[in-house]
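Appendix B. One record, verbatim.
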Amino acid sequence: MKVSSVSGLVLFAKDLDKTAKFYNSLGFRFGKRTPDRLTLYVNWFSLDFTTVGKDDKAEIQKENALTNKGAGVYIMISVLNVNEFYQEVVAEGFKPMGQPQDKPTGKREFVLRDPDGYKLVFFQKL
């Protein structure tokens, strides 16, 4: 058995317009948009955001109602210069969860939560 690649993630979003504005500010490329779905790209990797409505399956509605969506999940996003990117993020009015730090993993990184609380880790290799 062999996996060839991971191409994207599907995430719940409460407000697709707010999500679109947030990720656009960070430089993500827009893909398809429908009333209940938004696709964004970095290179070939996609983040698909979807809203959940009353007509969705009960299992999906139950999962969407959880308050700890994305708990323990960190979306790693490589940038060329993490210090400069951090300054740009702050200049846009975002509030990261701390300043860039060197980590034992050999990366310099900081974390920013998106409008739904998902954790984005912007990093550069040291």
